[in-house]
## 1
Amino acid sequence: MNAEPFPALMIKYVFLIGRKFIVCSFTTGRCSHTNRSKVDFPDNMLARQVARVPRVSALSRVSHSFAFASRRSIVSGACRGIRLAKFSPAPCRRFFHAGNALREEDTAEEMQEEERVVDEVDVLIVGGGPAGLSAAIKIKQLAEAKGEDIRVVLLEKGAEIGNHILSGAVIQTNALDELIPDWKEKGAPLNQPALHDKMVFLTETGSIPMPHPPQMNNKGNYIVSLSRVATWLGEQAEEAGVEIYPGFAGAQIVWDEDANGNKRGIRGIVTNDIGLNKEGQPKDNYEPGMEFRAPITLFAEGAHGSLSLKIMKELKLREEVGADPQTYGIGIKEVWRVKPENHEAGLVAHTMGHPLSTDTYGGSFMYHMDDNMVSLGLVVGLDYSNPYLSPYQEFQRMKHHPFFAKVLEGGQCLAYGARALNEGGYQSIPKVHFPGGALVGCSAGFLNVPKIKGTHNAMKSGMLAAEAAVEALANRSENDPYAPIDIAEYKNKLDNSWIMKELYEVRNIRPSFHAFGFLGALIYSGLETMFLKGKVPWTLHHEKEDYQYTKPKDQCQPISYPKPDGKLSFDILTSVSRTGTNHAENQPVHLVVKDGHYKGHVERNVGVFDGPLGRVCPAAVYEYVNKEDANGREDACGKKLVINSQNCIHCKTCSIKTPDQSIEWTVPEGGGGPKYSLT
């Protein structure tokens, strides 16, 4: 419920801006600057907050400065939209594996009643990738052109903008050209143009040249680190006046309900609580999450975003438009610095075949960046059937093929990462708008799989949502300016854009793999890309979820993978160390077995499938430990499930591929996870 107005006593909050502190008095609205290097805070507030807030880069120092004070002290301008609400914590789950069951205790009575900040903004954006940042920039551009003041807040769960961004990446610039026409003059990190395309089919030891589909022509594109591009977009957004708050993870939906309690839309989100221990009990630095409310919230979480999934499920967004199930791939990537004589700046190479068998959809890439760096990776469709397949191990094996080895030998691996990506395409796009918000970028699923590109579509979708949002805000109710708005015009703009035209043209290529098999799909895809261009009167469909394709262990052959040599291939923990992954110690485990039924999970996933979760995870998060190695403790089948959540690189693959769908991925404390910079 809404709180009473601020009390009459003077409440001061201090914000660090550069080397200065700004002291704000809520009772007077006055702000004064001081050069004091030390300010006395009640109850050591600053010390507490500095201890928990992730490192903040020079990017957005001003707009992020609130973090040094408190989630309860966030202000903007003349403290517009801020109010304090009494908050009684919801029952906290204590996640710990004891007695083969998840124990749940209500600790609300143990926790003092807290004040939760409720901040009302004009547009809220969840996710600081290309889609969310493009939306934010476009809104500010349109507002400036109209002479309006539209407050845009963007929340990002990574410690810094770009930390959780990973892609191939060869970027098509058409969306960037529209958004920031002078991006070259503004120093966008697009330095290496794509100069030469190559496509080959790999046998076990050799390679066969293949014709290059027109969709994969990269003339005019750039080989980039998408992490760096996102960081630069964040800088542009802040210059435009967007408030960017890194280290804030969206954890809950604030639902808009009818008189009968039926969910009909959203009113905003709540960030996750800070300062809970592994048992879900408050530590000394406990603070409840902030509640952000807005008439329009844009979800730009990327593929398989946790809040986006909740919204799709609760509002039945797939059912509303008859969308197919989404299908995914896992992309595993490394960045190397190679010998100058092995480097061919601007080369864009793609492969099919080895190391994957013909019953597994996927392929590899190798992009020669600037500064003698090479980006290479393997994408494996998560609809594979053999539970013994390990995408990580397939990638490590792949690098020993002469096609890659001759480039990498004598080089140095600089970075590693992995991420799930949408592969469903046109048929799998859900309803993208609803009262109070919309899905943009990979939250909706705009990746063009045959083109192996999605950034341009993600950015454009954010820009179209921004246009629809600004138009809708101009007509919002004066009596209730923060009431949920359904930006239905966003769908019309999408339908009339090159996004949907592009996706419709290639809609049959990915599902043809299941319809016709490897060879048939290869022939059909060639006809589609070269001649038919999507003009056929039929649409092939994705019939099942990815996990449903997994076969029981007794129907498959185990796969033997070679040991890493430490030069071209590496053990998984060495790779994880190159992600910069870190999670605050003693926080609730964010990867849990649904309903706490560990025994059932192990019976099904080990007994039937021989534990594929331990192989699909590219970060060694999940282990099925033998009973004798677990001090005699077991869940079932002589095994005990161990979840090393501190290793998690937020790829989301576990919640996609687990055969019985018993793993739930929730957000950890904001600021945790990988710290990508070259990916």
## 2
Amino acid sequence: MTSAEKTSPNNNANDSTLANFIWKNADDLWGDFKHVEFGKIILPFTLLRRLECVLEPTRDAVHDTIRAMTDKPIDLEMVLSQVTGFPFYNASEYSLATLGGTRTRANLEDYIAKFSSNARVIFEQFDFLNTIARMDRAGLLYRICQNFAAIDLHPSVVPDRVMSNVYEHLIRRFGAEVNEAAEDFMTPRDVVHLAIEILLDPDDHLFEENPGLIRTMYDPTCGTGGFLTDGMDHVDALRDRFKIAPTLVPYGQELEPETHAVALTSMLLRTLQSDPGRDLSKNIKLGSTLSSDQHGAERFHYCVSNPPFGKPWAKDQDAVVKEHSEKGFDGRFGPKLPRISDGSMLFLQHLVAKFESPERGGGRGVIVLSGSPLFNGGAGSGESEIRRYLLEHDFVEAIIALPTEIFFRTGIGTYLWALSNKKPEHRQNKVQLIDATNHFIAMRKNEGNKRKQIGPDQIREIVEMYSAFEPTKESRIFDYREFGYRRIKVLRPLRMALHINQEGLDRLQEEKAWGKLTEEQQAAWEKVILPLFGRTCAYGWAEDFCGSAPEMEASIGKVTKAFIKAFINAFGERDPEGDIVLDKDGDPVPDDQLTDYENVPLNQDIHDYLAQEVLPHAPDAWIDESYADDYDGQVGLVGYEINFNRYFYEYQPPRDLHEIDADLKAIEAEIREILDEVTE
């Protein structure tokens, strides 16, 4: 009896149990393969069995068709796809159960080779043929094939949503084995469901009002395709409500070949009621979205993404910088570029750039981000300019703070950004912040760092808050300008006196301008300076003194501006009580050491702010009018940040000291009791 037969689950098994069952094959791989290789064996076998189960009911019909159509001038691929009812087929006589124990490798290679090209590419991306050869040499191939042949993975037994969970468990499992960041490959299903509800729920009425409506959905970091399949499920659920079913056409792009292969499999098994023969896997592209957008000029009604948190974009830098400099706002990265250490906000810009135009129905988007895109970078930085672009162009509908500890490999706070280029009138120029951090249920068993789950009830609560668009304790409504500020440069005058002493002379002799003098010139300068020791002079005296010095000692020669500057640097000392230093035009010279910056709310005049907040403490301060914004030309750099916690902070008064003291005494008593028991 095989290990699969010993542990075969029933059809009602949950996804975790099914994944564990599939993973039991690792028991057979021990000793011959390393941990890091388990996933590359188990995952493609799982996909193979899934495809096989789908094709099983039409296997005989496919073979009959092949025999009947041989040597006839007909597009056999089209005919076979019609026979299977899916955009793929397999022409082999073999299955996992019938490969045999003597020529298993050759038969399995034949089996794989006779898949249609759109299915065969799945296994090519796993380099599956080399894996098969290694398993054959290890004497494991037949056993593993038999194990998987015992599993029924037909969609009627294991629906797409459950299968997605299985992929999630498997990827997390083998990702953890090799210490890889599994969150790069997948999004927890509860987060997926919430994101899709936020994305699609507001438009359910459009499907109702427009029978047979066709919409597109795009995920530029699609991983295994979880967002896309969940979105299709959402729209498919509306079929019973309408005479003509609505349609959601999926598109995506994925960087990693292996997860891309999983997404291809999912799409091969999906059909559109309006176009049953369409191969949706052709819409899922492979490659880096940032440096090579495989969907080019295409635009979409719905966009959704969970890009990697805090990942550098150095590999995409050349292409991104080129697009930014050459295309500007006609490309995807118009405003500015973020720091190289985190590409999250590049995906944010990309998502908005892929929205369908408002004239063609507009676009909506949801993206999962960490907290840093809310506030990283000051005024004028790439991050701030991206926020500015999104807010001033009214793309941001809502930002939802999610519970911590809901991802598998990180416990950090995460946020859903809901975006649109066609806001309803009541949302225009407004941003809704939702604190959903307390909307979760504790998990019975942790899955890595995931200790909390956003259950169906919690999803409904969050969606209702979003839909209601009303100010509550957990929902706040803001004019987008409330997140903006103008960073002004505040100057103060230089107040300096010249103290002629030995210390100053020593500093002068270290200046570069002094080193350029001849020994005779240096001696002459010392001769005219030494009698002045102990004097304190005004700033303006230095230039007059240096200009007249050759008259006192002819060997000094011509006095350069560089020497005068060195003289002031050496003998000058800041004096808060001294006279203000003026330039040649009679204007105050700013003191670099006293320069300060102030962030003035956008809704406040900068001069009023100066009068109220600065001048009472520094009466001689003024605003640097040359420090201006590149885009609006006004004084001060515009910046935007969303300090989420500030808007939901609730003051908690400290506990009464007597209460704290009582608790401490109680703890001390408990410790004494324990110590007494130990010492007895």
## 3
Amino acid sequence: MKYFITILILLITFQLKAQQIINGSVLNYKDEPIVGANVFINGTYDGGSTDEKGNFLFKTNEKGTQTLTVSYLSYETFLMVGDVSYMKDMVIKLREDVNTLDAVVLSAGTFQAGDNSKVNVLKPLDVVTTASALGDFVGALQTLPGTSTVAEDGRLFVRGGEAEETQIFIDGIRVFTPYTPTTNNTPTRGRYSPFLFDGITFSTGGYSAEFGQALSSVLLLNTIDEPDQEKTDIGIMSVGATLGNTQKWKSSSLSFNASYIDLSPCIAIFPDRNDWKKPYESASGESVFRKKFDSGLLKLYVAFDATNFELTQEDINETEGVHYKLKNDNLYFNGSYQGALSDTWDVFGGMSYTHSKNDVNVTKMLINDTENAIHAKLKFKKRFSNRFKLYFGAEYFADDFNEDFSENNSNEVYGYNDNIAAAYIEADIFISKKLAFKTGFRTEYSELFKEFSLAPRLSLAYKTSNKSQVSLAYGSFYQNPSSNILKYNQDLKAQNTTHYILNYQYNADRKIFRAEAYYKAYNNLVKYDTEFTQFNSNYNNDGLGFAKGIDFFWRDSKSIKNIDYWISYSILDTKRDHKNYPNKLQPDFANTHNLSVVGKYWIDDWRSQVGFSYTFASGRPYTNPNLPGMLNEKTKAYNSLSVNWAYLISPQKILYASVNNVLGFKNINGYQYANTPDLNGNFNRRALYQAADQFFFVGFFWTISEDKKSNQLDKL
């Protein structure tokens, strides 16, 4: 027994001597103790937690080289590899995790909508629930600050820029013909349905070096990665019908959406100011195929639409008016793959093809346009850590445009080939949870102009509190002139802008406030010496200009039960010397003041959602030939109030109605003057009113799905 006790004591003593004591303290970078941090040896049960002073102490039987792990919520995990005998009296400092929800966001100039964005200013749902938008993503974006109301056009005009200065991308690949064709004084619409998209990023300036050939803005549309269920959507409308279906398999899915639009019934009941021979008619279809792989996702997107109409419009210089006939066919294909090459490497590759053909008959003129365009893109992402990420890539644009023009038995052919190669590199650097910046540059080579361009980009954001931050952005941007110019003259160079942006953002509990000041400097704008672009005009790049202003945005979906609303206001000061301007003038597409108020209210007792959208825009310049100078007067202010109502007949059946400009404001887009003066030497004029003061829409929408409760309210 004596020998047994002796041996036991020796064993216990040996064991105690074999154990190593690991101790130290855990602090943040302000030298403040972190209470409750977990400290342990990887692969063992040996460890402990820090006390109120940040200290820890525990014993281990492990020997040699081991990995010590220290972790705590909202901080980066600390790893130390070394001999356990040296893990004594350590002072470990943890850095804040930059991936937390309350971390700073690089947001200057950018509005995001989607599940992956930390701050949602606009939701995908809003695209189709905004009363004035009528299911058009462009119409919804026009309620955001930074956009100008150009009612007769319908495209996006951003911060003093022309519509061509905004580029649209689907799944990161450029769309060359994003808008449906139309005629004078009739607004166009976005060509693509919002039903297949679940994410939107709208950058009004200072955007990433990944995107080029856009002087003012980029709009990024992302298709749904994975549908939640199989379903069929049916819509019967006063303007036509829609049909959509989604099928799912083990690792793939297919969605399509088709629509037919015919304005004949509406025009028969509510005639507008046009003399229609063939009211607007279009047939379109879109489809997305998705295939999931172990480490990636393949998407194939295709869209086709065919449009035709014929009408006669009033013209002060033509007694019988101007006859206009158009037929358009448009095909867009987009294929992309994104996936992981390793734990730290991601890759994206994609390509798009666009084919668009316009046959236009304007009185005695025949115009046949054909455009074929390709965009190919490859990019990589390397994650060195949560604090440093590197992006780089290359892309190629090829645009082939041809036009046949016939008038009075004469025929001319115009066109160009515009090929651009580009590369970029950019880095996200997070100094802390409060401070981050993005920097990089983009370079492009235009084969048409035989010219290189270098465009640096920089953005910075600082978290001023848990709910607010300030951001700065700077960037240089290049874009080749539009097809209306290049088809006549290619002896030019790329136009250029430089953006400076200061942003403040407050985000707390479904309330968002943004204020953003900006300045844009334009250089190398195209000028010509005729009223319109034509083959014998003299062209140069001597134009310049500026745009400056402040944008405000407030959204609140919390304060009032069942009510969601937002208010946006912009003030813009811009002047340009371009086109045939004699000097710097405020362009005819720019409003000094733009205001939008949008509201939505869910009424439980009525099983209904009602909404409204009000738009105000100050007058735009126009030229009165009875007065000296150019762009010497302004139209009266623009006003429009639109309302909508959605009623749930049953969980999957909806009755929907909307009225645009319900109060019937007689908005004037401008004036047309006679080519020659009257006997008194005055040029007579006529007001250019909207084609229709009001637009009425009624639809019935039925969803058939597995869960028996999904409906299309999120699309209305």
